[in-house]
Amino acid sequence: MSHWYLINRLLLALPTLLGAVTITFVLLRVVPGDPIAMMTGPGATEADIAQLRAHYGLDQSIVDQFIIYLGQLFTGDFGTSISLRQDVGELIAGRLPVTVELVVIAMCIAVGFALILALKGVYWRDRWPERLIDSFIGVIVAIPDFLWALSLILILGVAIPVMPIFGRMDLTISFDSWTNFYLIESLLRGRFEVTRSVLYHMVLPAVSLALPLMAITARVLKSCLNAEMNREYITLARTRGFGRLRIIYREALRNALVPATALSGVQFTFLIGGTVLVERIFGYPGIGNMAIDAVINRDLPLIQGLVLTFAVLFILVNLFIDICITLIDPRLRYA
Amino acid sequence: MTKILAVRDLHLAMRTGEKLVPVLRGINLNLPQGEVHGLVGESGAGKTMLGRVILDILPPNAVVTAGHVDCATTGSQIKSGGRIFSNRGRSGISLIPQDPMTSLNPVKKIGKQMVEILQLAHTGPPRALQERAEALLAEVRIKKPKEVLKQYPHHLSGGMRQRVLIAMAFSSEPGIIIADEPTTALDVSVQRRVLRLIRDLQKERNTTILFITHDLGVVAKLCDKVSLMHSGMILEQGLVSEVFHSPSHPYTRSLLNAIPRYDQPREKLAPVAEDLQSQLIDEARKYDQQRQV
Q1: I need a surface site. Which of B4, B83, B86, B106 has the fewest CB within 10 A?
Q2: Residue A202: closest CA among A281, A114, A95, A106
Q3: A236: which chain B residues are within 8 Å (Cβ-Cβ)?
Q4: How far does the CA of residue B288 sit from the closest CA of chain A (Å)?
């Protein structure tokens, strides 16, 4: 792995980002819906509306608007939110850590349980526990994350109210965060009651996001593992007298992880998409929740900023996954 | 001579749904110590399956329906219903596989794979095992064994990988080795060197080898005795010199005629007759019917 590879990948990401910016920008202005009409009440006069329109530059042609927007982007200016009247960059910087923490925890839950399910399933191949695991995965994968969210609220929030179902943490606790990464920051600052409350509030949304992801990952990993177990080098390991458990963990697993990890890049997209609905359902103050408000208010600069953020996240995660794969599989190095 | 491997009236079948499809039909085989025994037959004859029974690595749907395999070097008996095969006994037998390209774990360095195998039979500091692995690679005539130990399988050519696999097979000092078409995936010039290597190592250690192949030329060069298989039965068995000079079974004769020879006109080259093939399959079916009555 050379630095050139990394630099090359990051440079290649630029056209992708430009594409994402252009498409969002054009689509938002072609699609019906007027941000000014959303922010002014029914009593606004024609003159008021025209003045606001000029204030936000919406009276200019799409091409002119785009050139101005691109110029501002290069200077790090994401524009001002129309509905919230705040800097888009600051708004996103405040909300992004919330989503990142939620997604990372959900990923950990999903990958951890997927590993357990896949490894146990392969270990008990062709016996009843494998069939049980297969049907369990089948049921989980069939239900989308927002339905899990609603069911979990119904069961653990309403029927047996043991879990919090709204917000990021207990409102009675006051915590002045500098970074908005509550989880890490509270741990570092020794505010463990904050950590507890944040984790407690995170359980239901994270589990809702994790369940379908876990099922898909488990299914892919299990079929990869089963395919590896039929390979010749596994047969040889058997002739040498290595136990089945050892063969699965120390011979097959690392090989099976290569395609499974590659696929998780695609799954990450679904996870990001999933946060939009799940954050909304749990009133979780992340960028997903913010995206829904931005769309309802036709807040063009904010939507653009959020799409750009999602695109950057996606590119970084895929770069990270590609690096992971080359670390797992020596055949992909020096390529 | 000590008897190393005895296969007695072995019957093997594959379970497909409710039915048992016979794969091996009454195999008898005796290998004394130091013998290189060729097992010849076309695809589907059951050669590889016989090797797998002996190694006790049958697929889960394969069933030994009658007979047994006794192996002196592993102290094991494999028969219908039960298999007694202690993991420790495994070091008494090993396999040289057919395809060197898929037979090494692609994500582990050669040195690591060899040390892991050596750890099964030897105890000692990793350093000593590393040196032992190096010596083994030198024995299979790999130049710069130290560097090869640090490489991944994909850095090596097919011939090199097969040498590594041969070194692995001999590493536990097994009394018997099953060589399952070890040169089929290699090109001709590499084939010869690999065969000579196996022969040399076998002679030094007086190892018993069951050499599975469909190449009669290889059998002639390498083996002491030969068994000819078709439809899960052994048609002819004997010393290589006898079988090749005066084959008793028409199938053997037909196979020997099918070997291309540079000193004879091409017209004499005859494929194995189809009627002979179907006759053999009919015989196998009759055998199955008689056994069920």
Answers
A1: B86
A2: A106
A3: 95, 97, 103, 165, 168
A4: 29
> How far is Cα B127 from Cα B131, in angstroms, rounded to an integer?
6
- Nearest chain B Cα distance for residue A126, angstroms: 9
Region B40-45: mean pLDDT is 87
- Chain A residue numbers with beta carbons less than 8 Å from the beta carbon of B55 are 239
Q: What is the CA radius of gyration of chain A?
A: 24
Topology adopted by domain B3-107+152-292? Rossmann fold (3.40.50)
**Helix ranges restricted to H, B105-154:** 110-121, 126-139, 145-149
pLDDT digits (tens, 9 = 90+) for B209-237: 999 998 888 899 899 999 999 889 999 99
Confidence of residue A235 (pLDDT cuts 50, 70, 90): very high
Chain A residue with Cα closest to B98: A232
Give the tens place of pLDDT for each residue, A177-200: 888 899 999 999 989 999 999 999
C-alpha distance from residue B191 to each of A181, A305, B184 (Å): 63, 64, 8
Q: Identify the helix (H) or strand (E) that includes residue B3.
A: strand B3-16
Cα gap B220→B255, rounded to integer Å: 13
Partner-chain residue, chosen from A231, A242, A330, that has the shortest CB–CB distance to B102: A231
Contacts of residue A1, defined as CB under 8 A and 6 or more positions apart, other chains included, come to: A323, A326, A333
- Positive or negative, the CA dihedral B222, B226, B230, B232 is negative
Give the 3-state secondary structure of residue A21.
helix
Residue for token pair 């990993």: A221
Instruction: Examine the pLDDT at B149 and tell me if it is beyond 90.
Output: yes
Interface test with B, best of A122, A231, A233, A334 (most B CBs within 10 A): A233
Highest mean pLDDT: which of A12-21, A78-87, A102-111, A177-186?
A102-111
Q: State the complex-level ipTM.
A: 0.87
Q: Does domain A88-332 have CATH number 1.10.3720.10?
A: yes
Condensed to tens digits (0 to 9), the pLDDT of residues B272-286 reads 667 777 888 888 888
Here the tokens at position B209 are: 């080898």
Encoded tokens for A2: 């050379």
Confidence of residue A210 (pLDDT cuts 50, 70, 90): very high
Amino acid at B221: K
For chain A, the structural domain boundaries read: 88-332
| pLDDT tens-place string over residues A149-159 | 999 999 999 99
pLDDT at A43: 77
**Residue spans per domain, chain B:** 3-107+152-292
- Indicate whether B1 pLDDT > 70: no
Inter-residue contact A273 to A310 (CB < 8 Å): no
Is residue A334 within 8 angstroms of chain B, CB to CB? no
The packing angle between helices A62-74 and A3-30, to 10°, is: 150
A156 burial (CB, 10 Å; 0-12 / 13-18 / 19+) is middle
Q: How far apart are the CA of B184 and the nearest CA of chain A, in angstroms?
A: 15
